[in-house]
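Memo to structure team: turn this sequence into structure tokens by end of day. - J.P.
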Amino acid sequence: MSTDNEKAILAVSDEIRSYLESHPDGMDSAKGIARWWWQQERYRKTQQTVVKALELLVEKGVLRKRVTHGETLYCLITRKQ
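Reply from structure team:
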């Protein structure tokens, strides 16, 4: 069975491969990949997960969603509302 470190290495390698498949001309050092590519890919995936979680909370009636100046904002639905 894989150790947690081996699992983490495999997960990061999958993310790097995914990024490079999306950007086939990409090239950088390990430092550049860690600083820019990998963080951007993680941010994009995290943002997608956050949006899905927020939409779930809207569907459950926990949050209210409002679009203001092209930006979607979320807030807790209180009993007063």
